[in-house]
Write a structure and sequence with these properties.
The protein is of the alpha/beta class and 260 residues long. The protein is built from seven helices and nine strands. It has a domain of 158 residues: Class I glutamine amidotransferase (GATase) domain (Rossmann fold, 3-Layer(aba) Sandwich). The longest helix has 14 residues.
């Protein structure tokens, strides 16, 4: 039996087909660039597949999701075109233990908003500003291998607080932008047995996913979000009889009452 982490990279694959500037940066799609980076970083420890919006069931049919340990999600222009039945299917898989890595504009995806239970909205500005991502939890596995207390992206889209999400379990990165805004750019959550990592960098008109530090974080995120823990999942069910009755014993060990 393979011990490889089974990873599916989902991308709506809209901008790359419609905007020449995006196609020049990601000629095979953002999903292909991320897949190549993960393959380079993780080698044969992962089994990679990609899926896109225009495929039947958006490429996320039950068999594919059942064979996915970690799902990466990139969306921006077509959140509303994702079928609700697929969203529900992904949500159930997260509850059962599948990891989810929500990238950049996936903050506004149906699946992320459903799992968070809030609007997940924020402030933004498309001005190509420099971003400095401070590592505020340097011992976290997702920060493994980063060699400085921060790393920078030369040109990015600004995301600013307030970011309407529930309090994260962990905050790993906080971003600062040239305009003065800050943002919780790397946050983790747990829903059911599933682990969720939101990672902010990734606007389509900048080569964010070619950046070595971003690629390192994504590879680390896959390792962190992979299923772990006990096989048990607490699905509600009526227990008519005890599963494993504990035999009672009324025999008292005499040695417990010997004077000392």
């Amino acid at each position: 039996m393979s011990n490889r982490v089974r990873v599916t990279i989902w991308n709506e694959f809209v901008h790359e087909r419609l905007v020449p500037q995006v196609a020049a940066i990601y000629p095979q799609g953002i999903h292909a660039t991320i897949a190549a980076a993960l393959r380079e970083a993780l080698g044969d420890t992962v089994e990679l597949r990609t899926a896109t919006l225009d495929q039947p069931e958006h490429g996320l049919d039950p068999a594919t999701l059942d064979a996915t340990d970690v799902l990466l999600w990139w969306g921006h222009a077509a959140h509303d075109r994702v079928d609700d039945s697929v969203v529900e299917r992904v949500q159930r898989r997260v509850w059962e233990g599948m990891g989810l890595i929500a990238l950049h504009s996936a903050h506004n995806s149906k699946i992320f908003r459903r799992l968070m239970g809030t609007s997940c909205m924020l402030r933004w500005r498309e001005a190509g500003e420099r971003e400095r991502l401070w590592v505020v939890d340097p011992s976290h596995p997702i920060a493994e291998g980063l060699t400085s207390e921060f790393f920078e992206l030369r040109h990015t889209e600004m995301y600013g607080e307030f970011f309407d999400i529930p309090p994260p379990d962990e905050i790993i990165f906080i971003s600062w932008f040239e305009g003065g805004e800050v943002f919780r750019s790397g946050c983790t959550f747990r829903r059911g047995k599933g682990k969720i990592f939101y990672f902010r960098p990734g606007h389509e008109t900048f080569p964010i996913y070619h950046d070595p530090n971003v690629q390192r974080v994504l590879a680390n995120g896959v390792g962190w979000a992979a299923p772990s823990g006990a096989a048990y999942f607490g699905k509600g069910r009526n227990i008519a009889e005890p599963l494993s009755p504990i035999e009672s014993s009324h025999v008292v060990d005499p040695s417990l009452h010997k004077p000392k």
